[in-house]
Amino acid sequence: MPVDRRHLFKGAAAGACVAAIGSSPLALATLAQAQAFGETVPFSRDKMIVAARALAAKPFVDRREEIPEALRTMDHQAYAAMRASDPWPVPLSSENRFFFEALLAGFVFNQPVDLWLVTGDQAQRVLFDRSTFTFNPPADEIAPEENIPFSGFRLSTHINSPDKLDEFAVFQGASYFRAVGAAENYGLSARGLAIDTGQPTGEEFPVFRSFWIERPQEGAKAVVVNAILDSPSTTGAYRITVRPGDATVTDVELTLFPRRDITTIGFAPFSSMFLFGSVNRSDFDDYRNAVHDSDGLSIYTGAGEWLWRPLSNPSRLQVSAFVDTTPRGFGLVQRKRKYRDYEDVGARFELRPTAWVEPIGDWQSGAVVLFEIPSRREYNDNIVVYWQPNAPVKAGEPFELTYRIHWNADAPTVASGPRVINTRIGRNEFDTRELFVIDYAMRGHSVDDVEVSVQSSAGKIVNLASYPTPDQDTLRVSFELDPDGESLIELRVQLKVADDQPAEQWLYRWTT
Q: Which residues have C-beta within 8 Å of that of residue 265, sequence separation ≥ 6?
């Protein structure tokens, strides 16, 4: 089912972070123990890994019951009425470059998280202080007087202007986190890990139990966030380095300690939203031209091919696997970047970021897996993508992986040849076949010297044509599909230009 969580990040109420870790000295702490304000413990990356390994030797404990019922059952209006006040946000460094704000638990944010601020090799626990939050109606009558747990935190800096603090990352909800570059708004979300997505047994959502945020040294350009991940299937030690800028970059280093063999596991997972665009505009009675956080999946394969798959909002669940070895990158892209592409003054979809994964090291063989889930509401995250290795993660065997996420207006590197800028789908003029119209930005290549080929897994391709449009440097490819009785057909369009520069290959799954 699509997950209704997107609006929760809009004007989210102030909150806080409380999480716990492994064995002494980073012992798992109960909420009651966390009442000792300012508790300080030794800290290092090695201790985090030891703590995660020790936690894996114990049964998983669901900590949601630590959240008072009044917070778990409050609605969004009440949650939004709990707001941070002075001294939030607090500076992380002496030069006040980076600021930190804890986020309270409540509503759907029902996983308690322990927060620690790290200075050198010492970590100090962050605890709830009611005087630093404002509780407006109706939260004033609902929220407990003491010991409200935290659910995450946000980071801010002067990313757009030296006179204004701008939020550039937020960690809140299970293992979800988001980031933006300069002049961008939040859109799609990353996750620490995906387990059993789409399986009949149901998806397992790992959670970050604790965060250890390192205070940056003077002149630092990044914030380092350490975290312990936990779920019934695995624990993990994460180190996430966040560098804000025109493109904000997050480096993710993870070490898992599986409690069981995990066959269906997704690394570098993202959740996004695609309601409608030029591939399915006629399905929605809406004043806007398009509604989506991402409009395509881009993949840079180990063989050096660039693939572009326009996203869709199908009538039934669609799962696609793009098999690869040592992938060079993949991501969910928001390619349409003009206000008139959407005409939504409030949502400003044109400012939503692209998230591009750059694998570090050899990821060996596996597949980029894409889930497209039917949805009728723009508040549902109905798009999921991740990398799934062929080899399962084995119980008792530590598993390490490193990757980089670029949060930017586009993928950091794109094919040097033509690339897809728009896909339109509709019926032909006689209402007898499906018509596909694909526009390519030629990027300096001649539209007069291009070979176009179309492959289909079934059916027949009819009336293939290619021609320039009135827009400068744009080639249009059109063709009709005769399904010939088939209900699912995989399509591929390939362009070959005279100088052999690689063009994006257009992929699409057509279904009835």
A: 193, 194, 195, 388, 389, 392, 393
CATH of domain 419-511: 2.60.40.10
Question: pTM, whole model, 2 decimals?
Answer: 0.92
pLDDT at 331: 97
- Give the Cα separation of 206 and 107 in Å (integer): 19
Whether 245 contacts 229, CB under 8 Å: no
Show the 3-state SS of 300-341: ECCCCCEEEEECCCCCCCEEEEEEEECCCEEEEECCCCCHHH
Q: What is the dihedral of CA 32, 205, 175, 294, to 10 degrees?
A: -150
Looking at the chain, the domain(s) classified CATH 2.70.98.10 span 3-172+193-226
CA distances from 496 to 174, 358, 440, 460, 475 (A): 45, 26, 12, 22, 13
- Distance CA(53)–CA(203), nearest Å, equals 23
Q: Is the pLDDT of residue 424 over 70?
A: yes
d(CA 334, CA 350): 8
Identify the residue whose tokens are 């609902």: 142
Q: Using an 8 Å Cβ cutoff, are 26 and 51 in contact?
A: yes
| 3-class secondary structure, 388 | strand
Q: Which residues pair with 346 in a beta bridge?
A: none
Give me Rg for the CA atoms of the chain. Answer: 24
Q: Find all residues with CB under 8 Å of 332, minimum gap 6, and list them.
A: 188, 270, 272, 293, 294, 296, 297, 298, 311, 354, 355, 383, 385
Highest average pLDDT, of 7-11, 143-147, 347-351, comes from: 347-351
d(CA 477, CA 493): 9
**Beta-strand pair 365-372/383-389:** antiparallel
Contact indicator for 63, 112 with CB cutoff of 8 Å: yes
Topology classification of domain 3-172+193-226: Beta-galactosidase; Chain A, domain 5 (2.70.98)
Give me the helices (H) in 4-88, please.
45-56, 69-72, 76-80
pLDDT of residue 4: 52
Beta-carbon count within 10 A of 432 CB: 11
- Return the number of other C-beta atoms located less than 10 Å from residue 201's C-beta: 7
List, by residue range, all CATH 2.60.40.10 domains of the chain.
Answer: 419-511
Please name the residue that has the structure tokens 């972070």.
Answer: 17
Residue-averaged pLDDT of the chain: 91
Q: Given phi > 0 = left and psi -120 to 50 = alpha, else beta, which region is 231?
A: beta
* pLDDT tens column, 54-81: 999 999 999 999 999 999 999 999 999 9
| Sequence-ordered list of residues with C-beta below 8 angstroms from that of 302, at least 6 positions apart, any chain | 324, 325, 326, 327, 328
